[in-house]
Specification:
208 residues, alpha/beta, Nucleotidyltransferase, domain 5, five-stranded mixed β-sheet
Length: 208
């Protein structure tokens, strides 16, 4: 269904679509591609009413993580942040200097352009960012995405990111925010890309 919406959006309004979306060449070699691994902190998990409070992201290019170009932005919400502080740890004082939703939207699109958006259990993060782009930047957002959940072995239940990091002998972090979680996810993605049977982008379980 999302693929159909992407096609219709591009067909009906190609100018607006091109300002906020991009194509990727599935024949491109994985070791020449760009991946933006991102994570969000939100006021809750209601995809229709909760708000993005921060976006953190790092890039993988030529199978290397480039921390010098990492991305982190605080987003000013419309409603006061109260009980959700216990979950995300972002205080009202920190949000006083946050960017507007439109500024954050434009900054993230500029950062991610041309890359495959990646993350772990990506549905919630992608839904939040997609809504942010549509409401604040004025166009549907249908980039190619890569969910690490589709690349790992699952048995009786979905493993946590921490469990996957441990099982792949990767370092853990006790400092949790959107940027740090994006970095830890990028470490896992990098290992999966290097050790998996992925030569070209078309070999990956990409979605839109």
């Amino acid at each position: 269904m999302t693929s159909l919406r992407r096609w219709l959006s591009k067909k009906l309004n190609p100018t607006a679509w091109g300002e906020h979306n991009w194509e990727v060449e599935k024949k491109q070699f994985v070791d020449r591609a760009c991946f933006v691994v991102f994570d969000t902190e939100t006021t809750g998990l209601d995809l229709s009413s909760d708000e993005v409070l921060s976006i953190g992201a790092v890039k993988i290019q030529e199978l290397r993580i480039d921390l010098s170009t990492s991305f982190y932005v605080l987003v000013r919400p419309d409603k006061p942040v109260r009980d959700s502080v216990k979950i995300h740890g972002i205080t009202p004082r920190e949000l006083e200097g946050a960017k507007s939703k439109k500024e954050a939207c434009k900054a993230f699109l500029d950062y991610a352009r041309g890359c495959i958006l990646s993350g772990y259990f990506l549905r919630i993060d992608m839904s939040m960012v997609r809504r942010l782009v549509k409401e604040e930047c004025g166009a549907p957002f249908y980039p190619y995405t890569l969910d690490l959940l589709d690349m790992v072995e699952r048995r009786e239940r979905i493993p946590t990111l921490e469990e996957l990091l441990k099982s792949h002998r990767l370092p853990l972090s006790t400092f949790h925010n959107a940027l740090e979680d994006a970095y830890m996810t990028a470490l896992l993605l990098l290992k999966l890309l290097r050790e998996g049977p992925y030569r070209r982008l078309g070999d990956l379980p990409l979605r839109v």
